[in-house]
Design brief:
8 strands; 6-stranded antiparallel beta sheet; two-stranded parallel ribbon; single chain; alpha+beta
Length: 210
């Protein structure tokens, strides 16, 4: 068994991704975590559906997400060894998050505020980088600490010694698995889910509910 995790930095081939890279002047705008070297299946916080950019949460990303619609993404893959039993605990932790995914939402305010160096914390709400950084801190990996800046650029620098590959996203056959990214959605559904998403964020900020 390969007791390692793979941290995947990516320049996602979407309009939002290009906008973020332009604003941050960084090569990569997104980060995910995989338990397999082929990174066909990755965990992150991101949009759930391609057509609804502001509705997001905990997702299991297919590598196909990085190879379709707008061209292949550029990626940087870092490999971090995880000793047993921490690897088993980590895998169980990710499985629990997936089973409880309805409780976890994308921290849109934090993503926007990060452009001006603010980092609002909201209960059970994460961005891609605060999620990955939180996992590394929780399982004491790669020397990452809570004191590290929660930005893609800072995490990329911290993991520089662990780089395994940098280039186009690896080609992979297969289906989308649990990833709902390509699902067809209606305008009504997009409006409803986006409004509900921001309503949940506002409720957590104002009332501190989970």
């Amino acid at each position: 068994m390969d007791n390692a995790i793979y941290i995947v930095f990516s320049a996602t081939p979407t309009g939002m991704g290009r906008l973020i890279r332009k604003a941050t002047r960084n090569r990569y705008n997104h980060v995910s975590l995989s338990l397999s070297r082929d990174i066909r299946k990755m965990y992150s916080f991101a949009r759930l559906h391609r057509a609804i950019p502001l509705y997001g949460g905990f997702v299991v990303e297919s590598i196909l997400r990085y190879q379709s619609f707008a061209g292949a993404a550029k990626v940087k893959i870092c490999r971090i060894e995880v000793p047993e039993p921490r690897f088993t605990y980590l895998r169980n932790y990710l499985e629990r998050l997936w089973n409880e995914r309805e409780e976890y939402i994308y921290n849109t305010p934090a993503a926007l505020a990060s452009l001006v160096h603010l980092r609002p914390a909201i209960t059970k709400a994460y961005t891609c980088v605060t999620f990955v950084q939180g996992v590394l801190v929780r399982f004491q990996l790669a020397g990452v600490t809570d004191a590290d800046s929660p930005t893609v650029r800072a995490l990329e620098r911290r993991l520089a010694p662990y780089v395994l590959y940098e280039g186009p996203a690896p080609a992979a056959a297969g289906d989308w698995g649990e990833d709902s990214y390509p699902a067809q959605t209606t305008t009504r559904y997009a409006v409803y889910t986006t409004a509900r998403h921001f309503g949940r964020l506002a409720k957590r900020v104002l009332m501190g509910v989970t």
